Amino acid sequence: MRTDQFPETIRPHLIPEPGGDLVYRCLGCQTEHGIESLLYTCPDCGQVLLLHDRNFDRLKAIDGETWQQIFDYRRMLKIPAVKGIYRYHEFIGPVVPLDSVVYLGEGHTPVVEANGTLQEKAGIRFFYKNDGQNPSASFKDRGMASALSYINFLIRQGLVDQVLSICASTGDTSAAAALYAAYLKPHIKSAVLLPHKKVTPQQLSQPLGSGADVFEIPGVFDDCMKVVEALSETYNVALLNSKNAWRILGQESYSYEIAQEFEYAMADKVVVVPIGNAGNITAVMNGFLKFHETGIIDALPKILGVQSVHANPVFEYYSEPEAEKRRFVPMTVKPSVAQAAMIGNPVSMPRVIHLVDRYNRAAGTPRVFFAEVTEQDIMDWQLTANRNGHIACTHGGESLAGLQVALKNGAVTSSETAIVDSTAHALKFSGFQDMYFQNSFPDGYAVQPDPALVNGPRYVHPPTLKQVPAPGKPLDPEAFAVFVKAVSDQIAGDLGLKKRT
Asked: Is pTM beyond 0.85 here?
């Protein structure tokens, strides 16, 4: 659709132009730093940073209803740079010109309502947002599209060259980082650090396939993160973990898409996300706050952050009801099927504390809640969801299990509508499904299969058959007819089929 076919009032705003005044703002000392070079922590005090638009108030010159029309009409444009997360350019990366935007198909992932059976079992109307349908099959592509678009902008400006991007990962971050870096070759090369044998084979194959240098080290994600932090502090590399504030900006698109999908009506909505390194929940809160401040939404939805009991430092922090008594204590994690969330010392924890306070104050009432769930419930709810037409990963199971906890403790009511995050594609974690079906979980996971959820293939070879086909060895027509009848009769018997009359 051509721009001259749109309403005249929004034509000047349809194709975004570079603008804003972005700076890194330290959450510790509040010092602001320029964005001409890549920063991950404050040079003055070492605290984490958030990107702040010092000219954000310019966006308030457009009323909320007009912004809604801009985004709704912008979705009809054929310009690749605004097909993804940069549909919300003014809120995500306003300084990045469209010709620097890296678009690989990320964003605008489907929001699928649960069927009646699953909603009845869950006790609430809810939708899955399937972020596993991003290009590298996880939500991490949102942040990488932002971070790599900004680096591409710096490259085009001649401010950096021959960039080596590096990240620690439990799988999904490395896949996304390697994919987006590969697209920008030869200007960017990629290296990833993974905890040895703590990443699924499917996830390991992704950065290898994208040509990244992959290093496996002993320990868990937190150990990998310390090594990556040491490398970024000592050497000229681009850190692509969620410590990178540009990652947070890109992941805010998750909030914007939910608002747009539900016609910007957020008062009765609950957004459920798993917590790993705490970048995603940070981005979700920040995104809704921006839309609320500019009048695009008139109410802030509830946010529910979920953690496994095997990796729950954020939940433990907020389990203390009195804010002045809260102390964040990193923990030693145990094995978890929600592998990407198996993080005991999330780097974005200072952002969480800062934004939870801002979010609740803006709402005028507590709107951010936390829940912990068992490994058993994660697997049971993941399998239950997928038996009802979804493609939820273990983290999607974790989110749905957390919604059940919140319903039981009253943080969420059955009259609300929930949007549940499935952060990655189910196939990335199919090994855990196999372990469930085969009852082969190591003791550390504390998972016992429910027979009602177990499934497996059945080999069909009726004992009466003397001849069966084999590759390169077809049966003669008479023997093949006997084979087909015997096999079909056994399958029909197993399924309880009745003959046609």
From this structure: yes
